[in-house]
Amino acid sequence: MRRPVLAIAMLVIGLLCAGSPATATTFPERIPLPDGFYPEGIEVGTGHDFYVGSLLDGAVYKGDLRTGEGAVLAAGVADRFLAGLEYDDRSGLLWAVGGDEDGTKLFAFDGASGDLIHEIDIDGAFINDLVVTRDALYITDSLADQLWSVPLTNRGAPAGPPRAISLDGDFRFVDVGELPINLNGIDATANGRTLIAVHSTLGVLYRIDPVTGEATEIDLGGATVPFGDGIVLHGRTLYVVQNFLNTVAVVKLQPDLASGEVVDTITSDLFRVPATAARFGNRVYVVNARFDVAPPPFLGDPIVSVDYDVVRVPRH
Question: I need a labelling partner for 72 at 20 to 30 A (CA). Which of 18, 94, 113, 208 fits?
């Protein structure tokens, strides 16, 4: 009678042992992306899903933060590129700014199937990042002194043509140098009434009225956030990815968003010129763009042998 009991016990132990490696790799610190992918934007979708877009051909990669597994969801297209991404859980659409041979565009992919649902022409210079609010979508134009907006229905569908919003107030436009990046990363308060954006070249933050375009510099007490790329706003904590510095600045904002303080800097040996970030639970995920070894493909010949990844760091 003991032999069956022993056999069952050994089977249970075997199953537990077989499951332990999967447990050990749950929510891995590093998630590999396809070689030569040229990632730029990252976004978290439903559940553990995440998305990364390609500067090379506009492909969309979809992965699982829990397992680290993933695959290309939307295949690349010659002459297309994607920069910033934003997922809208009302519509299940993954919005992406970028362009193709016909000019700069706003794309919307089905977050489940990868099908291209919307393709909207944007008469911008270099549209770079975006944020979705309750009633509109806002886009930074890094080589111009303007934002773009697209109205949305309460279900997240486009409700009208894009509109340029001229930036006023404290905004300073820079047009010197080989590629002077002005506004880059953008996010919005929970009610959508205030936008926050980073000026990559000057290293300053602005709070922006989305109706008037009035930009007010956020007082950081003399500090700056140079090389600011993607940003993530969570409550009054702002995460600013500083690409070529291989850091993420943590800024604590005052309730009126008029001032703030750089209270911490996130570093990691795994950072390799991170471009953008997304928050999931108590972690921040950044995508390594590796612009130091493989500049954006529109600045030179693509290097398809470069490896890329997404890196998880604690949220400070």
Answer: 18
